[in-house]
Amino acid sequence: MTTNQLIVPNNNLSTRAAIELCDSAMTAAEQLHITICVAIVCPAGNVLASINMNCAPLLSAKLAHKKAYTAVSFKQNTYNWQEKLANKPQVLDALLSEPMFTYLGGGLPIFIEQQLVGAIGVSGGSEQQDISCALKAIATLLPN
């Protein structure tokens, strides 16, 4: 896919790119022998595409969306929050009171040519597996 096919005029991922991200994450999960849920959001946090693999943990669909939403909100990986908030319990408590915030790994922002175009959230495996599936999906979309 060319860059022109990846984004639409308002600097969002295209629907086709979002679907391909879901498919690539699912392929990565199959290679790990896990079942996951994936959510792709635009910069405004709205879901562009999502997929729930058969037998994925029930809570994973909501967590995948929260991971993507958190990643796009702060333009960083959700896992980074664990270290950032380790010695800031009041900030952690405040952020955890927000229904769409999570510090669980598996949410990554997606940048094309330094422009935030969306985010991916993966849930269902271990944190490391979720992160790995998200990274592999982004790498297949942007093979640079």
What is the topological layout?
Blueprint (H helix, E strand, L loop, with lengths): L2 H4 L8 H18 L4 E5 L5 E6 L7 H15 L5 H5 L4 H8 L10 E6 L2 E9 L3 H15 L3
Antiparallel strand pairs: 1-2, 1-4, 3-4
Largest sheet: 4 strands, antiparallel
Alpha-carbon distance between the termini?
12 Å
Give the CATH class: Alpha Beta
Radius of gyration: 14 Å
**Structural class assignment:** alpha+beta
Can you name the CATH architecture? Answer: 2-Layer Sandwich
Discrete helix count: 6
Number of domains: 1
Strands ordered across the widest β-sheet: 2-1-4-3
- Overall mean confidence score, pLDDT: 93
Strands, total number: 4
CATH-defined fold name: Beta-Lactamase
**What low-confidence regions span 5 or more consecutive residues with pLDDT below 50?**
none
In N-to-C order, the SSE pattern is HHEEHHHEEH
What global shape is seen?
globular
Name given to the CATH homologous superfamily = Haem-degrading domain
Percent range of helical residues: 40-55%
What portion of residues belong to β-strands? 15-25%
Keywords:
144 residues; 4 strands; 45% helix
